[in-house]
Design brief:
Mean pLDDT: 93
Shape: globular
Distance between the termini: 55 Å
CATH class of the largest domain: Alpha Beta
Number of strands: 19
Strand content: 5-15%
Radius of gyration: 28 Å
CATH topology of the largest domain: 2-enoyl-CoA Hydratase, Chain A, domain 1
Number of domains: 3
Number of helices: 30
CATH architecture of the largest domain: Alpha-Beta Complex
Helix content: 40-55%
Largest sheet: 8 strands, mixed
Structural class: alpha/beta
Low-confidence stretches: 8-13
């Protein structure tokens, strides 16, 4: 027998997030179930309830153990309530908030009886900090179970004691890696590191947690992690020189990753160092102060804006009618086993767990595609991201074919063939001839208007665009393009399928280049214009990487492929005129068979130990350029980036994207626009539209008409107005 109580013990009729079950064996089970939420989060109300429950349990001498667990299937605690952090108006207020959380977790850590966290599902941020404060942690082996400290991805650091407890539990190198990258560990990885003490199937989670209460009562707990964690624990205790070396290397790596654009990693390392050298009490004080100060930085504010934007987009069906339901997709076909087709097959089979019929016209092409898929499955297996059983199931979901056998029963077919309108027309006709009448045909077109592709279809209502970005398994964005006759049910199905593949989809209106390639084209074009003016390739790339892009424009051109650029550029030029005129350098590179990384030479050299790290100096002779022009980083960034901003504003004004939110998410996830700036529209707001218009007008007079401010930019500068009011 057991009795249940709420945290308020009947003080309120409203259901509260924490409930208490007092078992006859003296174990108190605290279940967390935030009402009205799909996942549990820790807000002020939850922390207040936890404090009252701890008061209650401290007074009850019959309690000899506590277990924290979730009342929601598949989620423990996804983290702190971000709205609570966003609402803070000062660093002092945010620091006080962190201090309140630390105090609760300190009480748990110092509780007189054993406290065990029973984890099933997401255990992130503040959820993991609660678990770290417990005396033992057990988790399920569910695919949904993830553990991590992703605060750095919001421009913050763990503010509930994570910077102090995590290094003491799993060792300094592993803890820094987890906190500085924000990575989320699967249960097997967490157990291997010693982050959890046991990993079991969900049905016996509570039983196992009870066993660990007994183990803690007997004082026989032994941490997992093996010799590596023992070695790092020794380094923390008695080897300050070794500790200093680890911290120095962490600072070096963080600086290389962030280019100084994100303050959180450096502050996080400071807090860890302070706690290890001066004790946990001083470490917690430093952590709370740093948390508060970081919460007020523009970087954190923009990253939080992005978090809210992507969260809101998870509910977007792509259609206005809320009653439209997506179709169930049981089997999918992919046409073309190149890098795009293989990548699409991989995310479909591994993430969406949907069987794929992969077709190519050449046996060697099929073999290459299957090899690509298997290599990526093997990578996940080596990282313990999937089990051997899951890996074999994923492999068997992909079946190859040289013809249309097996296509009659497919629900969706995605073409990933060359950007050629005639070829895509043939794909439409062949799919309609070899599949059921209701099959959805999705084109992975990157620039051709979807309506032109759908002209070849007998059933254009079933034609939609799914524009993936390369490499498919790594790039999170997917542009979903519906033409005027696409059925709403087809659009909703495409959006749901994209999320099942692990993508963040945005709805984009049909038209040349859609959104991402359209804003990318003038940026890349201008980089080549700078090269033709005599600015060195690596000088341009380095300036834009230091600004915050993951790669520079020339490295990106090599990655995409000069042949692909050569096919997209004329389409954009035809649609948008002189401002999208292709630079002649691309045509000359195509003639010289310099296709980029795929051919072993482009703007950079490929092959060998220095592959992709050194500019191929012969490119300057080919383009008749002398790279002697000096130009400051700020000037390089302004010449290239301002055109991207201008084109993004045009896209919003023309209805290519539905709102600024979609444009910001699309740019950050599609081309790596610096996340700490929030996206093109957030960035224009922060600069002021008058400053953007003035910069464009200045370049229009000094460089050329391609810099003419978009009408909407000029209008917003005069009013003045922002893309995000308030």
């Amino acid at each position: 027998m057991a009795r249940q109580e709420t945290a308020a013990q009947g003080e309120s009729t409203r259901r509260e997030a924490l409930s208490l079950e007092l078992r006859d064996d003296g174990i108190a089970c605290i279940r967390i179930d935030c009402p009205g939420q799909s996942q549990n989060t820790l807000g002020r109300a939850e922390m207040d309830q936890a404090s009252r429950l701890l008061d209650r349990l401290e007074r009850d001498e019959s309690v000899n153990g506590i277990i924290f667990m979730s009342g929601k299937a598949g989620t423990f605690i996804a983290g702190a309530d971000i709205h609570m952090i966003e609402a803070c108006k000062s660093a002092a207020e945010a620091s006080a908030l962190a201090g309140e959380g630390q105090a609760i977790f300190q009480r748990i850590a110092g509780f007189a009886v054993p406290v065990v966290a029973a984890i099933d599902g997401a255990c992130l941020g503040g959820g993991l900090e609660l678990a770290l404060a417990c005396h033992a942690r057990v988790c399920t082996d569910s695919d949904q179970t993830r553990l991590g400290q992703p605060e750095v991805q919001l421009g913050l650091l763990p503010g509930g004691g994570g910077t102090q407890r995590l290094p003491r539990l799993i060792g300094l190198p592993a803890a820094l890696d987890l906190m500085l990258t924000g990575k989320r560990l699967r249960s097997a990885q967490a157990q291997r590191l010693g982050l959890v003490d046991d990993r079991v199937p969900e049905p016996i989670l509570l039983e196992t947690a009870l066993q660990w209460v007994a183990i803690c009562q007997r004082g026989r707990i032994r941490r997992g992690g093996g010799w590596l964690q023992e070695l790092t624990a020794w380094a923390l205790r008695g080897n300050p020189l070794g500790r200093a070396a680890v911290l120095k290397q962490a600072r070096k790596q963080a600086e290389a990753r962030t280019k100084g654009n994100y303050p959180a990693p450096a502050r996080l390392i400071e807090c860890v160092e302070r706690g290890l050298s001066e004790g946990i009490e001083q470490g917690l004080k430093a952590e709370a102060q740093a948390f508060g100060e970081l919460a007020m930085t523009p970087q954190a504010r923009q990253l939080i804006n992005l978090y809210f934007a992507t969260s809101a987009m998870k509910k977007d069906t792509g259609v206005a009618d809320p009653d439209v339901e997506p179709r169930a997709l049981r089997r999918v076909g992919v046409l073309g086993a190149g890098l795009m087709g293989a990548g699409i097959s991989f995310v479909t089979a591994v993430r969406a767990k949907v069987p794929v019929r992969l077709k190519d016209v050449e046996p060697n092409g099929l073999a290459s595609g299957l090899k690509y898929i298997n290599e990526r499955i093997d990578q996940r297996l080596r990282r313990q991201a999937i089990s051997r059983f899951e890996a074999e199931r994923a492999r068997h979901r992909v079946t190859p074919t040289l013809d249309f056998s097996g296509y009659r029963g497919l629900d969706l077919v995605i073409e990933a063939v060359f950007e050629d309108l005639e070829l895509k027309h043939r794909m439409v006709r062949e799919v309609e001839a070899n599949c059921n009448a209701d099959v959805i045909f999705a084109s992975n077109t990157s620039s051709l208007p979807l309506a032109r592709i759908a002209q070849a279809a007998e059933r254009p209502q079933n034609v939609i665009g799914l524009h993936y970005f390369s490499p498919v398994e790594r790039m999170p964005l997917l542009e979903v393009i519906a033409h005027e006759r696409t059925a709403p049910e087809v659009t909703a199905t495409a959006m749901a399928f994209a999320r099942a593949q692990g993508k963040t989809p945005i709805m984009v209106r049909d038209g040349a280049g859609f959104y991402v390639n359209r804003i990318l084209a003038p940026y890349l074009n201008e980089a080549v214009h700078l090269l033709e003016e005599g600015v060195a390739i690596d000088r341009i790339d380095q300036a834009l990487v230091r600004f915050g892009f993951p790669v520079g424009p020339f490295k990106l051109l090599d990655e995409v492929g000069i042949d692909i650029i050569a096919k997209v550029a004329p389409v954009l030029h035809e649609a948008f005129g002189e401002r999208m005129r292709p630079v002649s350098a691309i045509e000359r590179m195509l003639e010289a068979d310099r296709l980029g990384k795929k051919s072993g030479r482009g703007f950079y050299r490929y092959g060998g130990k220095r592959s992709g790290k050194e500019v191929d100096q012969s490119i300057y002779r080919l383009l008749a350029v002398s790279a002697q022009q000096e130009m400051a980083d700020a000037a390089i960034v302004e010449r290239t980036l301002i055109l991207m901003l201008n084109e993004a504003a045009r896209c919003l004004d023309e209805g290519v994207i539905r709102q600024a939110r979609d444009g910001d998410v699309g740019a950050v996830f599609g081309i790596g626009f610096p996340p700490f700036l929030g996206g093109p529209f957030r960035y224009m707001d922060s600069r002021g539209l008058d400053a953007v218009a003035s910069t464009l007008a200045g370049f229009e007079s000094s460089v050329g008409s391609r810099y003419a401010p978009a009408p909407v930019v000029s209008a917003m500068a005069r009013e003045p107005r922002r893309f995000y009011p308030g």
